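Supplementary notes for students who missed Thursday's class. We covered one full example, reproduced here. Read the sequence, then the structure, then the short commentary at the end.
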Amino acid sequence: MPVRLPADLKEDMTMSDLYFGTDLFSEFDRLQRQMASLFGGFPSSIRSGRFGAFPQINIGSTDDSIEIVAFAPGVDPANLDVSIDKGLLTISGERGTAQPEAGDDTRTYAQERFAGAFRRVIELPQHADPDKVTAQYTNGCLAVSIGKRETSKPRAITVQGNPSQN
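Structure (token representation):
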């Protein structure tokens, strides 16, 4: 059955308006929502490898070092392994479960807290010095500091000139 449009609308509408509607941007929004639901959403940044990666990390730098903080609450520091090999920093370990006592009547039907083995691998910049690494676990945060090679540190360069050539 053909669609009949009022006469005043026929003049301003094109074939694409009939197919897509008059607001193309709303169609793009709809398509993006469908794609997000199909693939489970998109990473929040280019460096996001997967959702729910544990431990979450922050990476920054100073003039002298690269600073990495891994947020790993509930992990026994004795169960943490930190290593550097071929320019990759690996943080691995295991976090135990926080289940109720065996005799408790509580039944878990949803659990958001991660438990089990984990491993994060972070590519380091070339100026990272694997011989200058310290790691400290405090209040659920693992702070790893990696020194920079001396050749990569900022330095001032004196410009020399010949005073007789003015």
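Commentary. The radius of gyration is 28 Å. The CA atoms of residues 7 and 59 lie 62 Å apart. If anything here is unclear, bring it to office hours.
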